[in-house]
Amino acid sequence: MFEERPELLRDLFNRANQANGAQREALAGAVAAFATALVDHPDERPDAVLGRIANKHASLGITSNQYTLVARHLLGAVAQVLGDAVTPEVAAAWDEVYWLMANALIAMEARLYAQAQVKDGAVWQTMEVSDRHEETPDAVSLVLRRADGAPTGPVVPGQYVSVRVELPDGAHQIRQYSLSSAPGLKTWRITVKREHSPGGSVPEGEVSSWLHAHARPGDTLQVSLPFGDLLLDQGDGPLLLASAGIGITPMLAMLEHLATVSPDRPVTVVHADRSPADHAHRLELVELTERLPHASLHVWYEDIDHPDAVAVHVNEGLTDIARLSPAPDTTAFLCGPLAFMKAVRTDLLDHGLSPRSIHYEVFGPDLWLSKP
């Protein structure tokens, strides 16, 4: 596909995820998960899986005509990999599965564009960096405002935006960043963690490194409208917000929103990090939790040998949800590395939470689908 349309790799797809195979694995996993769901539950459509993909596509400005190109190359890959096993009947079945999934996504994405009151794919706007703050040596916050002076659009706590930058080789690469400030403000805030390439073998960190090196107050960036399905509900039942590393960002927006609109809601806040020095927005997390009279904060650090560790009540080692005994009617939101979220989800299920009450956000390709 990239041989036919090289601009897609240069200006749309994440080159790092193509180099390490994560994007291919996520795509195959999503199609396989959709097919499995159709077989196991023929009367139900896996909208949770589809909704996550549709929001990511909308944040990239994907349009319906691009599905035909992907179909041709994906089904060609199926034939190449399976060889003689792909009979006409098998090929027709996979073609049907793909288009059932694609048409559902196209319809969802059309609704997302309609809700945003834009034409399909027209999600990009020019925003100016109005402030910059170094959170940790590898995490920087950027405050964004509309370059034309217009108000920022509506936001739901938990949403993210895409940021598109032009790199030195002329490529326009896109990455998603959660909004780490509450709705209703005149500005948006994102927090960018600089990703280091292991051994320099793949181009990881292209966009995060560029933003760390170049994004300064007064500079402009191409930023999408907000999308995402990790959305804070409007109920009054107990919440658990569990994050690790830079996964803290959507939780900050949720906590600030709760402090304004639902301060009496019971909230358990869980965060895991390598050390206090690596914990972005550490003191802000403490302050936001303290604004909620029925909230509690539980932090785990792998290394607490740090002079500021006393600023919060901390635990050493890995997160232990069992110590918190969450109520079965808790609604949980998870964000962080995949291994962390899987471990927390398993613990929550063991404590009686319904799978429907556990929501998660994956940064990058959703490999949860391909690695159940």
Under CATH at level 1, the class of the largest domain stands as: Alpha Beta
Question: Gap between N and C termini, in Å?
Answer: 28 Å
Evaluate the radius of gyration. Answer: 21 Å
Q: What is the number of E strands?
A: 12
- Largest sheet properties: 6 strands, antiparallel
Notes on the protein architecture:
The chain is of the alpha/beta class and 372 residues long. It folds into three domains: 6-115, Globin-like (Orthogonal Bundle); 124-224, Beta Barrel (Elongation Factor Tu (Ef-tu), domain 3), CATH 2.40.30.10; 239-361, Rossmann fold (3-Layer(aba) Sandwich). Helix content is 36%, strand content 21%. Strands 4-3-6-1-2-5 form a six-stranded antiparallel β-sheet, sandwiched between helices. The chain has a six-stranded parallel β-sheet with strand order 10-9-8-7-11-12, with helices on both faces. α8 (248-261) links the parallel β7 (239-244) and β8. The longest helix has 28 residues, at 88-115. The chain is globular, with a radius of gyration of 21 Å. The chain starts with 5 loop residues before the first helix and ends in an 11-residue tail after the last strand.
List the defining traits of the structure above.
372 residues; alpha/beta; Globin-like; Elongation Factor Tu (Ef-tu), domain 3; Rossmann fold; six-stranded antiparallel beta sheet; six-stranded parallel beta sheet; 10 helices; 12 strands; 36% helix; globular
